[in-house]
Write a structure and sequence with these properties.
6 helices, about 130 residues, mainly alpha, Arc Repressor Mutant, subunit A
Length: about 130
Amino acid sequence: MVGREGMPEPAPRPKGPKLKFTREDDALLIQLKETKNNLTWKQIAEFFPGRSSGTLQVRYCTKLKAKTTAWSDDMVGSWLSFVQILASVYLAEHFCGSKNHEHRAVATANLKSLKTDSVTHIIVIVVLFY
């Protein structure tokens, strides 16, 4: 892979016992992973003398990979429903002066029908039964 036409130059071998990533290393890693997406981690490691494919994969996945999620209309709708349910439970409990167990059961059933992740369900259930 290294030295082939259209491929970037490899990163210089890091100096010293502790191999810190430079901004240039990060930029090269992102470029190789995101624009040359048919490369394996082993092939990408050829561009980084002194670093293993595992080290590069961990660096990319934990520090460099975009952590944004595009919100679909379904996700937005689910969150709006979530907020409405949570607000209704809060209002019922804090302004009506009683804990309405029937209202909680309906709210819990509604939450289970939403297309949200399990962490969201756990947070909501904890809030509902607090």
